[in-house]
Amino acid sequence: MGAGPWFGLLGPLEVRIQGQPVPVRAGKHRALLAALSLRAGRVVSIGELVAFLWGDSPPARTRGTLQTYVMRLRQLLGDPSLIRTTSDGYRLVVPPEQVDVHRFTATAGRARQAARSGRLAEAADLYAEALGLWRGPALADVPSDSLRDHEVPRLAERLLVAHEEHVDVELALGNHERVIPVLRALTADYPLRERFWAQLMVALYRGSRQAEALEAFRLVDRVLDEQLGVEPGAALRELHQAILVGDPSLAAPVEQVDPDVPDQLPPEVPGFVGRAEAVDRISRLVAPDGARTAVPIVVLTGVPGVGKTALAAHVAHRLRDRFPDGRLYADLRGYAPGPPTPVVEVLTRFLRALGVPPEQIPVDPDEQSTLFRSLLAGRRMLLVLDNAAAPDQVRPLLPGAASCPVLVTSRDDLRGLIAVDGARRVDLDVLSPAESLALLGRSGQAAEELARRCGHLPLALDVASASLGGGSVARYLERLGDRDPLHLALDALTPAARRLFGLLSVVPGPDFTPEAAARVADVPVAAAALLLDQLAGARLVRGVAGRYSFHDSLARFAASVAEDAEAARTRLLEFYVRAVDHCAELLYPDLMRLPSAPAGQARLAGVETAAQARAWLDAERANLAAAIRAAAEHGPAAVSWRLADGLRGYLWSGKHVTEWLLTAQYGMDAAHEQRDVAGEAAMHQNLGTLHWRLGDFAESIEHYTRAVELHRVSGDLESEAGVRGNLGVVRLEAGDLASARNDLETCLALRREAGGPRSGETAVLTGLGVLAVETGELAEAADLLGEALAISVEHGLRAGEITALTLLGVVAQQAGEPQRALAHLADALRLATEAGFREAAARALEATASVRLDLGEHAEALDLADRALAELREGGDQRITTNVLVVMASANRGLGSLAVADEQFQQALTKAGRIGYPPGEARALVGLAGVRRLLGEHAEARALAEQAVALTVRLGLRPAERAARVELAAVHRAAGDDLAAAAELDRADRLLEPPGS
Questions:
Q1: Between 20 and 30 A from 126 (CA), which of 293, 298, 359, 751?
Q2: How far apart, in whole angstroms, are the C-alpha atoms of residue 963 and residue 972?
Q3: Which molecular function terms from Gene Ontology are attached (predicted)?
Q4: Domain 1-163 and domain 495-563 have a common topology
Q5: Number of CB atoms found within 10 A of residue 304's CB
């Protein structure tokens, strides 16, 4: 828990301050603290608090009584600043991870991600850590009916889901004996939760306790009958049958995956049968062969529903040991009702899987392909490209190494790949009669007739098998009549499930959740979840870990029976817009965006914190990208630019530059076509920010300038001011100080003219402060940054507070006050670490290291720089990386490691030049000159120092110019020219005077 405050709600209320328990005895105080803790870091309105404390019977003096409770709670906590008063309510000022509810959610989310990535042991530990936070029923002693009604069911469901997922991971690790007692307890506590019974049956069966597994089924059958009057669901019945016949697939736990080896293969289809000849042929064609020089490409073709994807997955799993460097998979969605997956998205996913940091992934598709091929050189990997409709979808994804075969599935023969790229085609026919019967699990004439009626297609047979259940095949055939199995399965559903099935065809992305399905059908989420269970039981959708998807043939069938699809599509897209707005508000409340959509059903279940918002966006990223494409191409067009605008902050922070460029361009094209001035301005702003992030300052300035013009045309002063501020910062970083000052001062004037909140001034004041630092106006810099800090603290702007503190540390350093600088930087680092802002932490560490260098503490500076680089290891602002390299090189120079220092200064110089970062270039040139001087290379040192002087004079960077002149003086002195050295020092000293004096 650490030494900070800790608030526990998962059980009786628990409060610890500095590790010591703080009893909260009064019931109203417990309810108030629980309400604030559930939304730690966010404002809880007066109205909500009144409802939580008094329900429908508030006292006469509600506000006064509430203020008294807050005052007493502050006294109990011993730190009044922990509860901050705002104009709307109160806010508990602690990071969410210091509240057990939020830590549980975040830790379970990390466990889920580890499990999906194949890091099963790590996932098991994280689930155990998350579940260990529960000390009893949530809010056990909090006397608030309203809180319990709103929060306890939601928290209880999260607990049960975490238990289910934890058990799944333990079973996959082969720890069936360990989970049996856990599952005994869970089935006793939650006897109607069929998933726990299924897991218990599997665990018992794997422990060679088949009889006990069957007894567990009999017990749950009796419980469900007695309490609900129903029989076990289809999944439990199928599991019972598998245990009866000793299905070998139940005995083998999932193989653990090396976390460093990508394995993106979809799971094998349960009950895969036949295809022996095709399996052998494909295996021979893709098996590694040292004599090959060309990339083996196999195109698996066949009609829809013939089982191409299942066969490809089966072969890939069968051959996994032959490809120890990994298995990559992508669904190209060439035949889906929505848009196909863009090649750049596939390449981006592949490059990430291969360990490329997001920020180092090129935006250009050709550069992505080149990097992809170079990374695969010398590796033994298998690529599976599913549902390719044309050779152009495949060619950019082909490796250059013969040791990396490619297995492609398609409904077409892709003759271009065969003729030009040497692909080999394998035609997949329907199942044989014997294989069809094996898939049905039935025999006899009626079963043979059913197989024939299904066309011996695995998809149709699977749907028919689900409809058949344990019933008579003959009676099923009677019901079937002259219809096909898909129509019969559809007719067997309830009207609500039939309606949902058709409407789900409007989903543009690869999958969907119960919440998305609820919006499509305009029903409650709980009802949608039950309907999805019906559809999954009928094999009309596939469900994995709470997410559902269609076979593309079923998606097209659904589209053919959909009623009022356009209204459903609009509801779904509007839901995405509201959901993204909600997440953006949690993650980046101060980021300028288009006005939010009407509230409607904006609140997302289970998305109450920034961490939960990020997790939701991570899970839905592919769906949101598809929604943007679909809206741009088919309307409503505004959805495309609204979603692209709402995702800007998320894509920035996650460094998803490829998706960012694609979505912004789709939004731009749509806004331009519709002549929507606000939308076009927002997309120019979006692209300006993207190119700023990429270090392409010229492109960024062009887009920002166009956004300013459009906002001016529309009369939107506030938006014009915001973009002018960004434009000023970009010009500042590009070294155009005069234009930067004009933009920033204009921005400040526009903001004040528009009368917006002062919180919007922090970035501008900070930019002007940086400008003053660069020009040596330290007193003005301190005033500007102090004002930015005060506004940030007042409005709870953590990022602004961290930035201002860091820059005040830099000002104090340049003013010759190292201890004051270290104090500011320590505060900045603490806040950045608490908030999880890794780039901000790296910047504070780099600045601290620079102060340590001034104090002659080279080893300490090197350690701090190493820590800063570690914060940037997964990709970060390249300007910060440049500055860190300069500090590391300077520390190594001070420690006498001149060769290392020389190499690091060279790296910094190259990086600064590539991204267009003149201040970084100047610092690297000065450092490199110093190394060459110490090596006795005086001519080279002088040339480098003079280059630094010329650059800093041109840009007006007075402190950097002074450092360059001091180094040039040292070079002159080392070369024996004391007169030239004295002249340079005199020029350097004059730079200490205020500008213009």
A1: 359
A2: 14
A3: DNA binding
A4: yes
A5: 15
